[in-house]
Structure formats: structure tokens, C-alpha cells
Design brief:
heterotrimer, A alpha+beta, B alpha/beta, C mainly alpha, A: alpha+beta, FAD/NAD(P)-binding domain, D-Amino Acid Oxidase, Chain A, domain 2, 3 domains, eight-stranded mixed β-sheet, 22 strands, C: mainly alpha, 20 helices, 47% helix, globular, binds flavin-adenine dinucleotide, binds iron/sulfur cluster
Chain lengths: 528, 427, 425
Amino acid sequence: MTQKPKEQRIETEVLIIGAGVTGAGIMRDLALRGVQSLLIDRKDLCAGASGGNHGLLHSGSRYISSDLHSAIECREESTILKHVASQCIEETGGLFVAVEGDDPGFAENFAALCQPAGIACDQISCADAKKLEPLLSDRLFKAYRVPDATIDPFRLALLNVAHAQMLNNSSFRPHTEILLFTVKDGKIESATCRDNRTNTTLTIYAKQYINAGGAWAMNIAQLAGCKDVSLLYSKGTLLVSHDRLTTHVINRLRPPGDGDILVPGGTVSVLGTTSIRVDDLETVKPTVAEIDINVREGAAMIPTLAAARYIRAFSGVRPLLQSAGGSDDREATRGFALLDHSTQNLSNFSTITGGKLTTYRLMAEKTCDLVAERLNNSEPCQTHITPLPDEESCKWTEPGASPKYWYKANDPEDMILCECEMVPQSAIDEIVKDAPGAEKEMTLKAIALRSRAGKGPCQGSFCGIRIASYLYDQGHYHDTTGLIHMRDFFNERFKGTRTVTWGLQAAQMELAEALHCGLLGLDNINDD
Amino acid sequence: MIEEDRNFTAELAVIGTGLAGFAASIFALKRDIKTAQIGNTGAVAYTTGYLDLLGSLSPDYPSSIEDPWQGIEQLKDSHPGHPLCRIPKTDIFTAFEQFTSFLGECGITYTPPEKSNIRVLTPAGTLKPTLCVPSTMKVGSTAFSQKEPCVIIDFKGLKGFSSRQVVANLKDKWPKLSSRRVEFPDMASGEIYPEVMARSLEVPATREKLAKILVEAAEDAKIIGLPAILGMHTPDLVREKMEQLTGLQIFEIPTMPPSVPGIRLREMFEQLLPQKGVILIPQQKVDKLVFIEDGAQLSLSDSFGPITIHSKSVILATGRFLSGGLEASIDGVSEPLLNLPVTQPASRRKWYREKYTDYRGHSVNSAGIEVDSSFRPLDSRGQPYSKNLFAAGVILAHQDWIRGRCGAGVAIATAYKAVEEVEKLLT
Amino acid sequence: MTETTIPIINFKEKAEELLPEGASFEACLTCGLCSSGCPASGIENMDPRKFIRMAMLGMDKELSTSKWVWACTQCKRCQHVCPMSIDVSQLVFLARSNWPQEKKPAGIVRSCQLIQSTDSTSAMGLPPEDFVFVVQDVLEEVRELQPEFKNLQAPMDKKGAHFFVNQNSREPMSEPDEMVPLWKIFDIVGADWTYSSRAWAAENFCMFSGNEEAWREVIQKRVDAVNELGCEVWLNTECGHSYYTMWNGINRFGMEADFKLESLVTYYARWIREGKLPVNSDWNRKNIIFTVQDPCMIVRKAYGESIAEDMRFVTKSLVGEENFIDMQPNRSANYCCGGGGGFLQAGMTEHRRTYGKRKFDQIAATGASYVLTPCHNCHSQMEDIGHHYGGNYGVVHFWTLICLSLGILGENERTYLGPDLLECI
Ligand SMILES: Cc1cc2nc3c(=O)[nH]c(=O)nc-3n(C[C@H](O)[C@H](O)[C@H](O)COP(=O)(O)OP(=O)(O)OC[C@H]3O[C@@H](n4cnc5c(N)ncnc54)[C@H](O)[C@@H]3O)c2cc1C
Ligand SMILES: Cc1cc2nc3c(=O)[nH]c(=O)nc-3n(C[C@H](O)[C@H](O)[C@H](O)COP(=O)(O)OP(=O)(O)OC[C@H]3O[C@@H](n4cnc5c(N)ncnc54)[C@H](O)[C@@H]3O)c2cc1C
Ligand code: SF4
Ligand code: SF4
Ligand code: SF4
């Protein structure tokens, strides 16, 4: 007979559900106001849209034709973030380019549309555009420069959590899924959760409950009996190229469509995106058809995209606020919704959803204004003026940074474990010790999420083995569960390579499979 | 600058220097066929040294099998097109015998093919079924099956091989297994590669220094396991000397790439085949292959310039994606040298299953070229492309060597068959 | 005075221009075979795989300034073992070219400047008239002291001679008697040969210094000199890189050259096969063991297997089949000794010896008493690492052993012989 595990009970001032950038931002915002919180996620940091997006810090120009309000919000927020979170941002600048076949009228009008939103937009000659970006198509006929930038959501979320943890005893618990709320007298009394790693339940008691569940916000709200969150889901799929192809963000100068943005992500480029309505959040993944569309459309702007080596694809889901009409989901509002659920007779529950990575801070601010007021806390928001402090263990997600630290330290004993992204042992040490969400026997997946390990051309196939053996060495792993972590990590990485395995990546995959299955037999191990 | 043309003639041209290509050259030597061979580094450089015949019946059966010969019988029912089903078992046996005894004569002794598979160790501490094992690795499986006290030793600075990992994953099955970490002589700091250690163990002085360290690390155990570093060129000799010096039984466990066993095999073949009369052009690829009356003309170039080879027959053993024998594009799989038709899933959507480690494998891995009963590749009309062209190795369709644990099996058996057919053609 | 800084190269962009179609650093599988077999791995905390990855990750500043580029001998072993045939040495050459003259290792730069300083193209700056004088002087001495060679010839600027013979400067400059065995060999086979007073020197450190223009100039001088004398064959003597720089340079710069480039080793083999050089191994009664070092510059990077085969044929003929042992690995898979690429001249002694340790081990593993090699750099490096790591082997030129076997090695021509070999005379 198995023993019934002891009921675990946790108390906190505020419970934040969902550790995307919004949840992480709320955690820090509250901490800066002196409010303690517990942040939970059923998986891990950035497991939702925050880990599956384009990483574009919008100047706003993308939305000028469909949503002026959002465009202005983006302009304002991106300006703030460039000041307070500069370590997560690369000011790449952006180009909007039209190629033969695109609507000349739209192209002509573009600068004029940007003006009311206050977005700096300069037309440049096609020759100048090609000088800036030699890979642009010869069939270019119009080009503008805009102040787009890129942002690393992983580092952003990690730093928000790390700062909050430092400010007060706020904390983060990964793999903790909300199962049900116990409601009593117009209040949520407690939240029952499951620890998805140990399969045990725990009950969390809080004064205020914040639903920052992104696309899952409707499901979470329903657990509290709220019927006022109504979302549709739009899935977007993106591809990652082997190396960085452009210095600027390249946008197609046309109404938003498939494969029309190429965003540099440090050392790689990310091409996307498609937009497809989906019903089920749990089975979202890239499909071959989406990949092919992105490549085809992208190649119209940048012909080498047709022949580039891709190392990965991924999908994310945008929650669409039901109020927005329109036939194209891309045209639906990119604004966000904050619900206080007072109409649902709840006084300590709020939901924040929608929006963008670019506006995460504002979303957190608005939410915290509401929650602080409910807690009778009158501290004002500080996130727009207080720079996000750096933290050692959070620096490893920045593309191309890890080799720089390593090279500078020049320590031959600090061996590189991920050779593609050049992640050294010391990074792994730091992550398993100090990174937000660090815990006993951390999985390879969790470590990879907090670093660049496994993000390079081999997609973890070598470094997964090396890091695992290093963790065994360090006593971090000590039995066959280490093998399971390895296998799960490779399976996870495969989700990203599955649809882009052709060309050179097919050679890489064959080598990987020969190693993982042919040699190590990971296709043949039992879970128990 | 005035340059000379370089022309060679041969009865057989083997394209590819993987296991299939090398096996073909060995079998051709046995039959006194004048052979030229061309090929680049390929999958063989990464191999473990274990020679698998058939270790799993995936997709029908998830776990590994004991008896590969019986397994081939079962395969005939489920996968009649599998290359191993198209060759008499006695020939497969002979092929393995000839191949391993050739290796033995060259200083890399193998266990001969037996009735059943041997379970061998992997660097993760898992077990793998295989048919023939280099003598440097053999003790590992016997020590495991007899559960003898044993110490696995790893080295500071060698990434990807952890004795604690091996032990952690085997301790339930092998309680008297323990682990130790030591420093390799004169390589105390920084990263070290197995290749470097292996080469330096070819030097008697290094062996003496290491022996002292190993004796100390072994404590009471009489058997020790090391990552595969026991010499590059004379592994049998290095092991023997190390055993003499330490008084211990020593075995190797293959490591992840870049590892020693593949380099060992490659360097050995590249050296010995020319000595035995094969015209070997290493590290190059054939650019063009055309069939002319009664033979073929192969064009390639090395750093020095163009080379032409005229040959009466050709064996295509160019491997899969990793080695360049097949190419995958966004639109499908092709064979780049002759543009032979490739049997493959109907669309890229079907290439891979959802789960990477699904034991049933991925259908793109069974894509490949078709051959007739004489192992002649077929053209798009289903006719032999040329009466002088044969194929061998994992380029062939209807096999997934990774899931089937049959890499060497497919390579060696089909090479044997192809050479037999070449001989028929030539006489 | 402001310090000059090293400009930053965009390696990724350059790689696209440099590499032939189909070969791309993007193809790297990060498998590490290259690094595993590269003796420069670990030096300055770098290795070829890291170099490629850093290039792809845009670490241009680090790569542009890494001293490691002077430790990579550009031996191309990494390319040889790579399944994707990726050639790091091209990026290394690029990086070297990019260093300001005054920052480059002074020894290599000086050698190149000296090459440019005279019409001799000698890295030791020996002017034509001095070369002519030394040759004449040595020749007279031999004729005098070795009566059987009283008619020995060392033709100078002989128009229409079949062979235009080059000479590494080290001989006329510091060990002139070492030229004599070569002359004797030509004498015995009846070769129609000549030295040239201009562009006679073999070595070319301009290539290693990453000075492409200077490299071109040197090659141009040499090509002109051969064309002018109307020789059919530019015969490279026992000096590895001179062959490569000439051969590669002529192709690279698209020069007109109406002659063949050949290596002396292939002629040794040919003359022995034809019976013109009646060497044998009878002298090796004590079964002294020999091994050979394949110079990458003429084997892997140029001729390939054929010259490696010739070298072994010559060696076996000279020392006896049973007294020859191959170094492992060998031929196109050989390891660079660590003297190449200007390493010997670069003044990075410790790094050079670290690199050379692998070669030392390989030599030690053969147990041979002597290493034969037709390359001056290899020769010097192997002697140095032998002393440094406590080896007890000697390094000899082929010409020395050929003359020894023929019983015509003069008293002054035995510098590289140990007591065991001296006893065999
Ligand atoms: C394809 C795509 C591209 C995009 N590109 C950009 C862009 O370039 N620029 C930009 O500014 N914005 C972009 N966005 C939008 C941006 O990614 C999102 O707005 C942002 O990441 C939302 O963050 P979030 O924290 O609100 O939600 P999420 O990141 O989705 O976080 C929700 C979290 O809740 C957790 N959760 C769900 N259910 C439960 C439960 N029951 N219990 C506990 N936890 C639970 C999930 O695991 C998840 O981690 C893009 C979105 C998509 C889909
Ligand atoms: C990581 C790994 C582990 C392995 N472990 C095992 C193991 O434990 N047991 C086992 O039995 N097998 C193992 N193998 C498989 C084994 O090494 C063989 O590679 C495999 O069986 C394929 O053999 P092949 O000769 O058909 O093809 P390959 O080995 O792929 O050889 C193909 C050859 O063709 C050459 N080529 C391609 N195109 C051209 C051209 N145009 N001109 C000239 N040459 C060309 C390539 O350069 C290459 O040399 C492993 C492989 C890998 C990658
Ligand atoms: S050997 Fe080739 S593929 Fe492997 S890491 Fe080196 S360059 Fe990359
Ligand atoms: S050229 Fe030689 S020294 Fe340079 S990286 Fe390649 S193997 Fe190493
Ligand atoms: S010195 Fe000798 S071994 Fe070294 S690079 Fe030159 S030729 Fe190669």
C-alpha cells in the first residue's frame, strides 16, 4: 500500500499563477511595493508564449495599420524598457521593406501612418537598405527605418524573478499546477495545486490571487468559477536559422501576413510567423506546412532564407480577446485585458491576459495597481524608473554572451560543455545553485531553459550527454533518473527540430540518433 | 604551370570509406579483385567499434534481442525488403568472420561472430546488444555478466565520460561496481581528448606512468574499466602491456564523439589497404560517375588536382545523410551522385514521428535506394541502372539501422554480397 | 605614440567569400573530430572547433586578436578528418593577414622582410653574390679534399638546364657543407641542373606572416627566374613549405609558369627505381631503426599519397625494409611536427613545444633511432622537441643517408649523424 503523502500547506500574501513575463513582471512590481508573493507555473518559467515568441521589441510600427492604440503603447513601453532593462535588449533597429508584388499604396502610406503614433520612421533608398542588409532581395522597391529592437524574454523573466526574490521573501515554484480554487464568501480561500514532478498536492493560501495564465487564463479563471474571460487562440510558428542573417529586424511592408518578419536573436535569426486558429492548447506544435509557408514567404524578402540551415522551429499561442472582431487574427487587438472579477462576486482574484511581450511591464503595473489597492498598499509603481538589476545566474540565456565570459575568464579548467553555444561548466554550476527555480536534481530541460545550452546547431545532442555526465560527476544526478532527464531533454529538443530536419540538419540528426538510440539506447529505457 | 594527369584503372571502384566500403575492399582483396577506393570521413569516424548484426526487431518489439540469427528469420516475415533478409545467413556469417579476422590480423582483434548477441557497456551505463566486440572491450561484458568487483576509472579533463554515471546506472545490476577519477600522466590541466590519451599510450613511458596510477585506483578490484583510450594503432598490444604492468584485467568503454574506436578503424584501413594493393584515395569524394561501355569512369579531385579512375565495376557505398550518400531537401530525399530514385515517405510530414525516442523509429530512416537481387541499384523504371553498378551499406532502403541496431550488419553483409556479384560480373 | 590595434574582421562574411561553393562553416556538426586531432588544441584555450563556433557566433574581436592564430600551423589536418571538409586554416590565414605588421610575431615578419630584401628571396638575407661565392667556395674545397669528386659541378645560372634547383638558406648561410651531398647525388645520376643566383632560396615566410602581397612578390621573382633560365622543372629540395607556397601561390595568383614543379623526393625514388642511384642498405648492419616524418606541406597539402609512398620506398631502399617503421598516424593523416606555419620563427617557444609534444610521443612510440624528413622546418622542430622532452633520436636529411649508403659522405657532411651511424661509414 502506498502511503498517502502529507498534505503540504503554503501561505503567501499574493499568489501569481503563470510564470511568463507577465507573471514575473508582476512578482517584481509587487516586491518593489513591498508586497510578498509566490509565483507558480505548471511547467517552468517562460513555458508559454513568453518562451515561444519572436523576441521583437516592437517600436509600434507593425500595428499602425490595424491598432493605433497598441502602436502607441508599444512605442511608449519599448522606450521605457530600453532604459530599465537594457541588458535584455539589443537595439538592432528595424527595416520595413516592400518587394515586387506587395501593395505599393500601402508602402507609400507607411510613414504617414507612423506619424500620429509618434513613431520615428524614415524612408531610405533601396540601395541604402541593401547596404545595411546585403541579403535583402533585389526585387525591393521601398524601405523604411524604424526603431525596432530585440529582447530576450528568458533573461527578462529570470531577472524579474531574481530581483523579486532579492527584494523580499517572494519565491518561485516551477512545475506547480493550479487544479482548483476553494471559494468561500466571495473570496478565494485557497488554491489546490499539484507538484507535477513529485505528483503530490499542496494547498496555497493567499490574500490575493492573480491569474497571469496567458492563453490559459480562461481555463484558470473557470477554475474559480469565473465566466468573464473569453479567449480564442491563435497559434504562431517560427523557425530559427543556424546563424544570424541580418543585423536589423526585417519586416515585410504589407499588412501583417505569414513569414513576414525576420528577427535577429543574438546569434541566430528567427523567421515567422504564421497565424492559425486552434482550439486545443496542449497539442500546439509546428507543422511542416507552416514551416514551408514561412520559408517561402520569407524568401521573398531575403532569398537566402530558401537555402539557409534551420536548426529549430517552435510555436506559441496568442490569446485573442473575444471582444475583438475581424477575420484575421493578426488584426485582432494586441491590447491586453485586466479583469477584477468583481462581476463574478470575487474580491481577491484578478486576471491579466493578452498584450505583448513589449507591454508586459505595463500589464504588470496595471495589475499591481489593482492588487495593491485591494491590499491597502499605496506604494506607487516603480518599474518604469527602477532599472532591472543584473544577477550572475541569469546571464546565461543571452545568445553569444556565454563564450565571451568564458573567453575572458581564460580558465582552461572551466571546460565548455555545450560546444555550439560555448556554455562552460561554471555556467551549469551557477544555474543549479542559484538560478530562479533552481532545485534538487534539476532537469536538463530546466537547466537548458536558463542557459544557451542545447540552442546551437547540434540542438543539445552532444551537450545533453556532456552536461548529464557532468551532473553525475557532481553528484547532482545519482541514479537512472539522470537517463530519463537526458531522454526527456532530447525528446523536448526534437519537438523543435522535427519539422526543420533537412539539408545539413539531417546529417546532424542522423548523428544524434545514432548516438542517443543506436549507442546509448535511450529509445529503450523504462521510466520506472 | 604544367600539370600531369593522374589516371588509375581498376576492376572495382568502391565509392565510400565507411564500414561497407572498407568491408567491400577487404572482400575484394580476398577474391583478388583489383580495387580502387575513394571516400571521405563519414559515419565510421564516430562508431563505437562494436559490430552489430541485429539487436532489435523494432518496430514490432521494443526491447533488444538475444539471438540475431533467429531475429533475421522474424525480420523476413515483418520486413522482407530488409537488406539482411536478402542475403543467406551463412554468407552473413562468413562475411563477419572474414571481416573480423582481417581486423585481427591488422592488430585489432575481435571476438568472432557467435550464435547470440553479447551485451556490452555504453558510456551512459546502459547496455547494448552486439555481435562482435574488440578484444579491448570484451572483458567488460564478461565482468558484468559475472558481477565481478570492478572499478570504472575516468580522467580529469575528459568531458562526456563519467565513471560515476556508469556506476550510478548499473549499480542495481552490478553491486560491486565502483568509480574513481584520476589524472592522466602529464595532462593534469585543461581539457583532454581520448585521441590524445590513446596516442600517448602508444609510448611505453606513458604506459608505465599510467599503470602506477591505475593500480592505486583499483584498490582491491582485479578488473578495471576505462574510457576507450588503449592505444590508437596497436590497441591489442597496449592492453596487453597495460595488463602486464598493472596485473589487472582492463577493458574499454566506447566514449561519445570524438572517440577513439572510429579513428582507430579508419586509420588502420587507410594504412593497410594500400599496403595490400588497394588504390586508396582517402578524404575525397567522387564528383562525377559515368558509365561507359563495359565500365565506369570516376572523376574527382584532391588538393593536387584532378584524378580519373576507370573501373570495370562500381560499388556505391556512400551512406546516408551524415556521409552524403543521401541528401534531404525541403522537398524530399535524393541520391546526389547518380540521381538514383530514392524510396521514401510520401511527404516530409511523414518523415518523423512525434516522439524522438519512439522505439518504432522514424520512417525517413528507412528511405534509401532500391536494388535487384544482385544488389544492382534500380533506375526510375525499376531496371538496373547499369550492369556494372552495385550498392552496399546503409544507403539501401527498407532498413533503419539505428533502431534495428544493425549498422555494421547491413554494411558488412551487403558489401559481401555486392563483391560476390562483382566477381560474377568480372568472370 | 598611440598603440596600433588589430582591426576586427567579420569572419562570417569573409568565410562566405573564401570558401568554395558547398563548403561552409555553417555545415559544422560540432562533432569535435578536428579538435581531437589538432595539436594546437588547448593552446591559448582554443581549438579549431571553438574557432569555427566563435566565428559563427560573431566573436570577431576575440578571433581577430587571438594569439592562437600563430600557433595553428595551417597544417590542414583538421580538414582532413572533418566529415564536412571544413578548413579552419583559411580563417587563420585571414586572421594573420589582418594583424598589423608591428604586432605580428617579429621573427616571422623579419624573415619575410629579409626575403624581400634581396634578389635571392632568402629568409636569411643572403645576397646573390654571397650565395654564388659560398657555392663556389665549397665546391672548390670539395674538389680539393675529395679527389673522387674533383670534377663535381654546381652550375650557376645555366640557361636551358633541365632542373632549376632551389636551396634552403640555412645551408649556404650556416652549414654550407650540407649542400655537398645533394651535388654529389646530381653528379651520380648525371642530372642536368643549375642553381640560379637570383630567387634561388626555398623558404617563404611571407605566406606564414599573412602578407599576401609579399607572398605574391616572392613567387613572382621565383617564377621569373625559372622562366628566364628556361628550365623545364623547378626542383624543390628538402624543404616542405617552399613547395607548397610556390605551387599554391602560382595557382592562387594565376601566374604564367612554363615549367613543372617537382619535389626532389619523387626524383630520389625515380632514380633509385631506374638504377641511377644504386643505394642499398647493406651498411645498416646494426639494424638501426628509421622512421619518416611526412611534411604536411608536400603530403597532405599537396601531392597526397603518391609522394608519401615515394618517401617510404626511398627510405626502405636506404635503410632496409626491416629497419623502417612508420610513425602513427602517417601520410595524409600525419600530424604536423609543430615547426610549420612559421611557428619556429614566431618566438612562442613554450606553445611550440606543447604542440610538438604529440609529435614527440609519436616518434617515441616508434622506438626509432632516426627520423628522416625532407623538410627543414620539421627537421629543426623535431630536433628541438627531442632535446626538450628527452628523446634519444636523431634527425637526418635524405641526402645525407643517400650519400652514406653510397659510401660518398664526406667528413664535413656528417653533422646529423650520431655515433651509431658514424660507425656504419
Ligand atoms: C508566435 C508568437 C509570437 C509573438 N511575438 C511577439 C513579439 O515579437 N513581440 C512581442 O512583444 N510579443 C510577441 N508575442 C506575444 C507575447 O509572447 C505574449 O504576449 C507574452 O509572452 C505573454 O506572456 P504571459 O506571461 O502573459 O503569458 P505566457 O507566457 O503564456 O504565460 C502563461 C503561463 O501560465 C502557465 N500556466 C498555464 N496554466 C497553468 C496552471 N493551470 N497552473 C499554473 N500555471 C499555468 C503556463 O505554463 C505559462 O508559463 C508573440 C506571441 C506569439 C504566440
Ligand atoms: C555515432 C555512431 C555510432 C555508431 N555505433 C555503431 C555501433 O555501435 N555498432 C555498429 O554496428 N554500427 C555503429 N555505427 C554505424 C556504422 O559505423 C556504419 O557507419 C554504418 O553501418 C554505415 O556504414 P556505411 O559504410 O554504409 O556508410 P557510412 O559509414 O556512412 O560511409 C559512407 C561513406 O561514403 C562516403 N561518400 C559519400 N559520398 C561520397 C562520394 N560522392 N564519393 C566518395 N565517397 C563518398 C563517405 O565519405 C563515407 O566514407 C555507428 C554510427 C555512428 C554515427
Ligand atoms: S570535424 Fe568538422 S564537423 Fe566536426 S567539429 Fe570539426 S569542423 Fe565541425
Ligand atoms: S590547420 Fe592544423 S594546427 Fe591549424 S587548426 Fe587545423 S589541425 Fe590545428
Ligand atoms: S614543419 Fe613539417 S610537419 Fe610541420 S607544417 Fe611544415 S611540413 Fe608540416
